[in-house]
């Protein structure tokens, strides 16, 4: 994560069902669904004003930390999150082994 995002707080916006960070009034976020033991990450997006800033990667990393800290298992259906985990395989530790594409990570 780029240093400029380290102190940006992650918000679990339950009304919108998304994890988000806000940067200068613009958002990077991940839509999620949550079960008792799992969090499904569905879609990652950043406002166009944040394109190329690293905000999307920052919201992913902060969300993965949140999932781990809350002892949940991850189902990374979002292609961006899936690619992020492939690039950072240490995060495979929080992916639910029952995830259908687990062996592709």
Automatic annotation (TrEMBL):
Alphabetized Gene3D superfamilies for the sequence: 3.40.630.30
Pfam families: Acetyltransf_CG
InterPro entries membership: Acyl_CoA_acyltransferase, Gcn5-rel_NAT, GNAT_YJDJ
Signal peptide region: none
Residue ranges annotated for the N-acetyltransferase domain, each copy included: 11-96
PANTHER family found in the cross-reference section: BSR4717 PROTEIN, PROTEIN NATD1
Protein name: N-acetyltransferase
Native source organism of the sequence: Chryseobacterium paridis
């Amino acid at each position: 994560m780029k240093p400029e995002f380290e102190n940006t707080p992650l918000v679990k916006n339950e009304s919108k069902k998304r994890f988000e960070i806000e940067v200068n009034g613009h958002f990077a976020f991940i839509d999620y669904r949550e079960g008792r033991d799992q969090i499904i990450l569905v879609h990652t997006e950043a406002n166009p004003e944040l394109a190329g800033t690293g905000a999307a990667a920052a919201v992913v990393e902060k969300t993965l930390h949140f999932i781990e800290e809350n002892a949940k298992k991850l189902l990374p259906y979002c292609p961006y999150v899936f690619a992020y985990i492939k690039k950072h395989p240490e995060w495979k530790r929080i992916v639910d082994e029952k995830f259908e594409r687990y062996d592709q990570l």
